[in-house]
Design a protein that fits this description.
The complex is a heterotrimer of chains A (258), B (345) and C (330). Chain A contains nine helices and twelve strands. Chain A has helices spanning 42-49, 72-78, 94-99, 114-126, 142-155, 172-189, 200-206, 224-227, 230-237; strands at 4-13, 16-26, 31-35, 54-62, 65-66, 79-82, 160-164, 192-196, 209-214, 217-222, 241-245, 252-256. In chain A, the strands form three sheets. Chain A has a six-stranded mixed beta sheet, with helices on both faces. A four-stranded antiparallel beta sheet of chain A has the order 2-1-4-5, covered by helices on one side. In chain A, a hairpin with a 2-residue loop joins strand 1 and strand 2 (16-26). The longest helix of chain A has 18 residues, at 172-189. Chain B is mainly α and 345 residues long. Chain B has 16 helices and one strand. Chain B has helices at 3-10, 12-28, 36-44, 51-85, 97-114, 116-119, 124-149, 157-182, 187-195, 203-222, 224-230, 234-239, 244-266, 272-284, 288-312, 321-344; one strand at residues 317-318. The longest helix of chain B has 35 residues, at 51-85. The two termini of chain B are 35 Å apart. Residues 116-121 of chain B have low confidence and may be disordered. Chain C is of the alpha/beta class. Helix content of chain C is 45%, strand content 16%. The termini of chain C are far apart. Residues 1-42 of chain C have low confidence and may be disordered. The chains are: A alpha/beta (258), B mainly alpha (345), C alpha/beta (330). Chains in contact: A-B, B-C. The A-B interface holds A 14, 47, 50, 52, 71-73, 75-77, 79-81, 83, 86-87, 89-93, 96, 100-101, 103-104, 108-109, 111-114, 117, 139, 152, 156 and B 1-2, 5, 86, 154, 222-226, 228-229, 231-233, 235-236, 238-243, 281, 285-287, 344.
Chain lengths: 258, 345, 330
């Protein structure tokens, strides 16, 4: 069974449709990367999964259930999101922030259990935050804050993990680490990962499946080699590019031509 | 409960200690000087009809306890409003609870004055409290309706609420000013009420206000985790499993109830609901499960101290306690802000 | 909300200050007023006359004014009492005595800020009377508009005589004014003599309750406090300097008043029995001498809050409350 099935989706905001005729299936255990230029609808598609946009037409099923039929709590146990932008408001610690990722698994007045602590520990360790657990989120660096957001989503222990631009603001080391971690989790735990990326080459290396969006439509979907062709990219990004094989993996490697 | 969370509860002990000390000080000092011996004697075996016993049991004790409850209530409501609006400048009066209560109370005072000895009987005070309460609920309700009707509410519900609250506050504030202006002889009375005071409040007021304050304050404490989640912003809170709309309304209603009950028995006591949660956040961190009871203890302490000062500084005259909270609270609060800024550097 | 609050505090402070300053001013004026009056004696009712008011401004009145406006209820009462009512054209909505005031144009509420200058100027007044400090700004404004203005302080018993003298001289009723002053002095003295014999057992301790929540009284600096003092009552809060202070209920119970006075406003009913029941219900109040002996008296607010010619009536009410025996014999 497909983890996620999107059929003929048209969605957006009260005053504007952003996506049209989007149909998509995602299998469990795969890393799906959403690519596309600014404004092509990547984030809107992610938000649609969380029932955060207005759906004009079509349906989104997760494990066979329509997302708009699920309660927020049920949805949060199936889907986790690490958002692109979030401003820390109060000086909570990193650990407290990650712990709140466990909220959907407990009643609103039920204290967290030992099981929750274990998942929080794991998420902190996986994102390299164990040492920083008592730091205040208002006083950490941008990269540390992004890893905290990823850890919070990991702590949700969902079958589907969505990440909006998870590598933005990270050093190269952490970019690779985060993406490797995500790929390992996907393959080992049958986790479905959907992420948006700006970097075509990172996407090409890590994605099992790529969806290329252009102006609210799906321009192409498939493996990196199938989607990332010179002609298509030059057209979608309106910039001339060359595609050469990656020196290590033979995956497509994209360089702009000036 | 995990050991870690239990450990955090220990951090309530100093605040509890402060409150107990403040209560002792509040009961010991008053316009009438009583020695510790007199107080002890009269506390253990109150004798009917003696001045000391009456002063202690019927006047000072209920007043100190009421100050503690109102202080706690305002601080909890302040913490909740700050949390739900993600705004450190929010206070219990941000969406019109105070101006609504002020309008209700002003109208009630006018009615009472118009027929001074008719309502003066036992019903005068409940009448005042109920009017203040109804005023607060009505204005806050109107703010909600306006925010819901406005289209902008979909995009920025928080901002619309605050703006509608400010607009309606100004409106009702103007109505109160108008009433005062047209009823010159009531000026001092209405002013004194607006400035906040526990003068002339007894067990009756405690009976009426405290159940509401405890109920709504307790409800807000139970809402600790939703409040924590709301601090990440609406969308994140939703993706973490919170039905934000439902919980926000619930929290705002509880916080408004709490504020209205406080304002109804004490008048408008400013600054406390803003100050106490911030001070508590510095001491105990921003998690609401600690912040709310901590603010409650600290708010209670501060208001008991402020009211004790209000009762004693120019005795036998008294100062409206709202003036004391602003005069004492503001510099202390600014000092805290500055010293914390230097620490983190 | 904060702006709202701070505005309240400002206004309240201003109120306190004006009350305090007013009392000081009044005592100075009563002396200077008397000396200033004598040199003009040679010209008793004839105009022109030059009158110096409490701002220190000398106003020359060339002929008998016939379009007078009063912006203070106590001044209005004085004008009618000296027979200048006929010369009046306007007053405030709070000027409710005597009944003839109903016929006059209402140019203002009693509030210093609520006077409509346009209505006032359109009335073409040839003389406007108003209060002292708290209408100071208004007086200056009117002067600038070429409206002849006289401002007399109206805060204390001494101010009454002073105001009557100033008002009667400037309206051409010097004799009536002097007669009224003498009458008031005699009546006050008569009341004092009447209660004197009963003061031997000690003066009754009086609590004047302005309001109950917060508990507010009239201090010795207020006009009401002065009246209580004048007729031989001991103000329970004589040690408080504020005119209308919020006071400690603890102290009230400890000091134990013999008599409680309360005002009633706007002609409301004076139901002493119901009020007594309320007082009885308050903790510690039923042991008070005043409540035990049912010595609670409700007095019409206007009589004891306006330093005007009806002061004697107000004083008599207080006297009857404090020394009922003195009035029983007849």
């Amino acid at each position: 069974m497909n983890q996620i099935e999107i059929e003929n989706l048209a969605c957006g905001y009260p005053e504007r449709e952003v996506l049209q005729q989007v149909s998509l299936c995602v299998e469990p255990g795969k890393v799906l990367v959403l690519l596309g230029p600014n404004g092509s609808g990547k984030t809107t598609l992610l938000r649609a999964l969380f029932n955060l946009v207005v759906v004009y037409q079509g349906s989104i099923l997760i494990e066979g259930e329509a997302v708009n039929q699920l309660s927020r709590k049920q949805l949060a146990r199936k889907l986790a999101l690490s958002p692109q932008m979030e401003v820390p408001q109060w000086p909570m610690t990193v650990e407290e922030t990650v712990q709140l990722g466990r909220s959907s698994h407990r009643g609103w007045i039920q204290p967290f259990q030992a099981e929750d602590t274990d998942f929080v520990e794991a998420a902190l360790a996986q994102t390299g935050l164990t040492e920083l657990r008592l730091r205040k989120i208002t006083e950490i660096s941008g990269g540390e804050w992004r890893r905290t957001l990823i850890a919070r989503a990991l702590a949700q222990q969902t079958k589907v993990l969505c990440l909006d631009e998870p590598t933005t603001g990270l050093d190269l080391k952490y970019q690779v680490e985060v993406l490797s971690l995500i790929r390992d989790l996907a393959h080992q735990r049958d986790l479905t990962v959907i992420l948006t990326l700006h970097d075509l080459n990172l996407a090409s290396c890590f994605a099992d499946q790529i969806v290329l969006l252009s102006q609210g439509h799906i321009a192409a979907t498939g493996t990196g080699a199938e989607v990332l062709t010179e002609e298509r990219l030059s057209d979608v990004y309106q910039t001339k590019v060359k595609v050469i094989p990656h020196p290590e993996y033979q995956t497509p490697f994209i360089v702009p031509v000036l | 409960m995990q050991p870690r969370q239990l450990f955090l509860l220990w951090r309530m002990i100093p605040l509890t200690g402060f409150l107990l000390a403040a209560l002792v000080v509040g009961i010991h000092f008053g316009a009438v000087e009583l020695s510790f011996d007199q107080i002890r004697q009269s506390l253990w075996n109150p004798s009917e009809g003696s001045h000391i016993s009456t002063i202690l049991w019927q006047i000072r004790l209920p007043r100190v306890l009421l100050a503690a409850c109102v202080g706690g209530g305002l601080a909890v409501a302040g913490a909740a409003f700050q949390g739900v609006f993600r705004n450190p400048l929010a206070d219990p009066f941000v969406i019109g609870a105070s101006s609504g209560a002020a309008l209700g109370a002003t109208l009630a005072l006018l009615c009472i004055a118009g027929s001074i000895t008719v309502i003066t009987a036992t019903w005068q005070i409940p009448w005042l409290i109920l009017s203040a309460f109804a005023g607060a609920i009505l204005v806050v309700g109107a703010v909600f309706v306006i925010a819901a009707l406005s289209n902008a509410g979909r995009n920025a519900p928080l901002l619309t609420l605050i703006l509608a609250g400010m607009a309606l506050s100004s409106f009702t504030g103007a109505l109160v000013s108008l009433i005062m202006f047209l009823n010159h002889e009531m000026l001092t009375t209405i002013f004194s009420w607006l400035l906040g005071s526990f003068s002339g409040r007894h067990w009756n007021e405690i009976m009426m206000a405290v159940p509401v304050i405890f109920f709504s304050g307790g409800l807000l404490w139970l809402m600790s985790r939703p409040l924590d989640l709301l601090s990440f912003g609406d969308e994140t809170a939703m993706t973490l499993g919170l039905s934000t709309g439902k919980f926000r309304v619930l929290i705002l209603i509880a916080a408004t109830l709490c504020t209205a009950a406080c304002v109804a028995v004490s008048g408008v006591i400013g600054f406390l609901g803003l100050m106490a949660p911030h001070m508590t956040r510095i001491m105990l961190g921003p998690r609401h499960v600690l912040l709310i009871p901590g603010s409650c203890l600290l708010g209670a302490t501060l208001l008991v101290v402020a009211d004790t000062l209000a009762r004693t500084v120019i005795a036998p005259a008294e100062i409206p306690v709202g003036i004391v909270t602003a005069l004492m609270g503001c510099p202390f609060f600014l000092f805290l802000l500055v010293s914390r800024g230097q620490q983190s550097r | 909300m904060n702006r709202f609050n701070s505005r309240l505090i400002l206004i309240l402070l201003a109120l306190w200050m004006s009350a305090g300053c007013g009392a000081e001013k009044a005592s100075q004026n009563s002396e200077s007023g008397q000396t200033a009056a004598s040199p003009e004696k040679q010209n008793p009712s004839g105009f022109p006359v030059t009158v110096k008011d409490d701002r220190g401004v000398e106003v020359m009145i060339s002929e008998k004014p016939v379009r007078i406006v009063s912006l203070l209820p106590s001044h209005t009462e004085i004008l009618f009492a000296i027979g200048a009512g006929e010369q009046m054209v306007g007053c405030t909505t709070y000027c409710n005595y005597p009944a003839e005031t109903e016929q006059l144009e209402k140019v203002a509420l009693s509030n210093p800020g609520s006077v409509s200058l346009e209505v006032l100027v359109e009335l073409k007044p040839d003389l406007v009377f108003l209060g002292g400090d708290y209408q100071r700004l208004l007086a200056d404004q009117l002067s600038k508009l070429q409206v002849p203005v006289l401002s007399f302080e109206s805060q204390s018993v001494a101010d009454i005589e002073h105001s009557i003298r100033g008002i009667s001289r400037s309206t051409g009723h010097v004799d009536a004014g002097e007669a009224l002053i003498q009458q008031i002095k005699q009546d006050i003295a008569a009341l004092q003599t009447r209660v004197k014999p009963y003061q031997k057992q000690g003066e009754p301790r009086v609590f004047y309750q302005v309001w109950d929540q917060p508990l507010m009284t009239a201090g010795p600096a207020s006009f009401i406090g002065e009246l209580i003092d004048l007729i031989g009552g001991e103000n329970l809060f004589a040690d408080v300097e504020i005119a209308y202070p919020q006071v400690s209920e603890e102290t009230l119970i400890l000091r134990n008043p013999d008599v409680i006075l309360m005002p009633y406003v706007n002609g409301g009913p004076a139901d002493v029995a119901a009020s007594l029941r309320t007082l009885n219900a308050r903790p510690g109040w039923k042991e008070m001498n005043a409540v035990k002996n049912k010595r609670l008296y409700i007095i019409e607010d206007d009589l004891i809050s306006r330093p005007g010619p009806r002061v004697v009536q107000g004083l008599q009410k207080i006297a009857q409350a404090l020394y009922p025996e003195a009035f029983q014999q007849q």
